Description:
Elements lengths: L1 E4 L7 H4 L1 H4 L6 E4 L11 H11 L4 E4 L7 H5 L3 E4 L2 E7 L2 E4 L3 E5 L2 E6 L18 H13 L6 E4 L4 H8 L7 H12 L4 E4 L6 E3 L3 E3 L4 E3 L5
Amino acid sequence: MIYITGDTHGDLSRFKGKETRWLKKSDTLIICGDFGFVWGGSPKEKRILKWIGKRRYNVLFVEGIHENLDLLSAYPEAEWNGGKVRELGGKLRMLKRGEIFVIEDKKIFAFGGGETEDNSDCSGGELPALTEIENARINLEKNNYQVDYIITHRPSRRIRNFLLMDQNDANVLDAFLDEVREKCSYRRWFFGEIHMNKRIPPSEMALFKAVVDAAGEL
């Protein structure tokens, strides 16, 4: 089974609580950005990452806005389930922007990143490069713009405006996610930036601390 959750922000409670206790060896947990466990590279941090990588289920995440992207980029790149990842050890992986993965016969399009007005807790590079956007378009075109699930940190601008009444000018990521929403056929789109658990009919869902079955009822 594929399960989705929102930002963890370096808090292990999501992995130790009842929400994930019942996940099995064959299951996958995907975090919608702000993973937060890769920041300073300390011995303690490495021990925590090793512990997460030893979970019986796969742990995957996309980048949010509170990540050390430079440190994440130092982890080895590999091919995994049809797309490119950063291997953090064991069953812990970062899904690279614009890649499409096949998990349990489901196509999953991943595109992390975001934008924040407060840069004090960011490492830079949260907004995508044009090369990342072009790579995403190529991968979507190869799949005829048809996927099962979309995993992002930031929602499309339309959904963001609906939830936050945010009328700010669009950045490059907003424009691209609007393009994806318009052109792509998908069953579900999950995102974590808004820090709430809320269904937006018919097919979007904001997630924070909830852990949901990707194929279950929204």
